[in-house]
C-alpha cells in the first residue's frame, strides 16, 4: 500500500530494546546530600534505542539518552534503602524489561 510505504518504520515497530546490562552505582556523599551516579552498557534495538528511563524504588525519576545518570539524594533519613533499575526505550515507545537492580543505603 502506497500510504504505508511512506510512513516511518517506527510506527510499525513492536520489538522492545534489549535489557540494559552491567548496571553500576557510585555514591558521593556530602554533609547535606549524596550524588548517585549510575552507568550501564548500552541496549540494542531492531531500529534504534532512543533513551533510558531511570527508576528509584520502582518509581520513574528521569530519563536520559546516554548510558549514565546522576541522582541527587537529600533530606533522607539515615539508613534509607534506594534501589535503582533502568529500562531502554525506542522511538515507538517500546520498553525493555528492567535491568538488574543496584541498591545503596544512604
Report on this structure.
With 106 residues, this protein is mostly beta strands. It contains 1 helix and 7 strands. A 4-stranded antiparallel sheet has the order 4-3-6-7, with no helix packed on it. A 3-stranded antiparallel sheet has the order 1-2-5, with no helix packed on it. Strand 1 and strand 2 (33-41) form a beta hairpin. The longest helix is centred in the first third of the chain and has 4 residues, at 2-5. The termini are far apart. The relative contact order is 0.30.
List the helices and strands and how they pair.
Layout: H1 2-5, E1 21-29, E2 33-41, E3 49-56, E4 59-64, E5 68-74, E6 81-90, E7 102-105
Antiparallel strand pairs: 1-2, 2-5, 3-4, 3-6, 6-7
Task: Using the CA coordinates, give the radius of gyration.
Answer: 17 Å
Low-confidence stretches: none
- Major sheet attributes: 4 strands, antiparallel
How far apart lie the N and C ends? 57 Å
* Helical segment count: 1
Please provide the ordered H/E string of secondary-structure elements: HEEEEEEE
Helix content: under 10%
Q: Provide mean pLDDT, rounded.
A: 90
| Principal-axes shape call | elongated
Q: Could you give a short description of this structure?
A:
The chain is mainly β and 106 residues long.
What descriptors fit this protein?
mainly beta, 50% strand, 4% helix, 106 residues, three-stranded antiparallel β-sheet, 7 strands, four-stranded antiparallel β-sheet, elongated
Amino acid at each position: 500500500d502506497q500510504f504505508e510505504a511512506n510512513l516511518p518504520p517506527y510506527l510499525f515497530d513492536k520489538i522492545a530494546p534489549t535489557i540494559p546490562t552491567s548496571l553500576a552505582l557510585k555514591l558521593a556523599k556530602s554533609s547535606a546530600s549524596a550524588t548517585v551516579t549510575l552507568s550501564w552498557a548500552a541496549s540494542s534495538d531492531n531500529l534504534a534505542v532512543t533513551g533510558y528511563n531511570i527508576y528509584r524504588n520502582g518509581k520513574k525519576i528521569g530519563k536520559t539518552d546516554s548510558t549514565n545518570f546522576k541522582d541527587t539524594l537529600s533530606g533522607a533519613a539515615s539508613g534509607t534503602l534506594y534501589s535503582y533499575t533502568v529500562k531502554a526505550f525506542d522511538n515507538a515507545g517500546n520498553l525493555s524489561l528492567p535491568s538488574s537492580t543496584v541498591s545503596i543505603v544512604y
